[in-house]
Amino acid sequence: MSSTSSFSENTPHLLVLGMGGTIAGLAPNPQENPLQYEAGQVGVDSLVAQVQSVVPGRIKLVSRQLANINSRNLTDAHLTSLGLAVREALLDVAVSGIVITHGTDTIEETGLFLQATCGKLAETQSKRVILTGAMLPSNALGADGPSNLLDALRWASMPFDNCPSGIYAVLDGRGCMAMDLAKRHATALNAPLQNAPSSSVSLINPSWLSGVKAVQAGWTEDLPIPQAGDWPWVEILTSHAGARPETITHWLSSSVQGLVLAGSGHGGLHDDWIKPLDQAMVQGIALVRTTRTGAGATLPNIPELDPPGCRASGPLTAPRARIALQLALNAAKQTNKASKPLTWQDFFARIADLPEVR
Ligand code: SIN
Description:
Layout lengths: L1 E2 L9 E8 L23 H9 L8 E9 L6 H16 L3 E7 L5 H18 L3 E5 L12 H13 L8 E6 L2 E4 L21 E2 L5 H13 L15 E5 L7 H7 L5 E6 L10 H9 L3 E6 L18 E3 L5 H18 L8 H9 L6
Parallel strand pairs: 2-3, 2-4, 4-5, 5-6, 9-10, 10-11, 11-12
Antiparallel strand pairs: 1-3, 6-7, 7-8
Helix pairs in contact: 1-4, 2-3, 3-8, 6-7, 8-9
Bound molecules: succinic acid.
């Protein structure tokens, strides 16, 4: 662990975990082309050093580099090590809050993962975990990373009567529950929060806050973090005009355990997929149906009845539904030995049926 100051790590502090991303990116020619750059080049200690002098109060900061990657290369093993580091920090009495610097491309997967595996622990330990990132590399003119990091540090340390403990994300002056992140724009500074019912960093909106409390009341128990080599294999497939049965039959001879099906409209799937999907369910492959439209919930039995082996994703986008299905399959495997084992659908429902924050 690297410390940005000489104090002991037993001193109360905020922990900044570095995962990489554009916030840690460098462009070779930032004046001419700030969007041509490499993510994950600058250490989290340097990012923290840049803002240390303007952090409010006398808050101590400690940084720890867990990875320094472009988040499109995020692996199951990265998520395991992040989840374990977050849990360890939540249980550490010296850590008062946690900020994670992360690439925005897959930040929505990480947001859902942290809510489902650490959300209850954050609440019971009365701490906030704040994800942040940037859309411009660190050496671009007007780079958004420093202000996003500063906002995340503020959010992590603000009084609890303003916002409860839990897992959040902050970008471009706005915040949301981390499980509501969805990157829906390639370049906008608020890209991962565009669809999220976000609240401004300086002014928490009361209706958003009551939504957060409803979600937290519905989230009773964290799901286990899969071990690094033990994540169930789940793929995302998109239904489209001209879809072929082979897109599904291809997987029937593999060891894939789940498929997230991004359908058109309400999450409708091409008729040419019906027979091979029936076979997938016979083989025990878990199916989750979602919408490829990019917004709106996928409701059960709409437009047609869902067969028992296929469940609608609710508000979860395809990337989030994929993580939820991996966690649900893993949790179901672990309860198999219980006298009344729970199914992957039981665990998936815990995530997908949470109240929506509006
Ligand atoms: C990444 O996700 O690591 C690159 C893109 C970004 O952070 O915005």
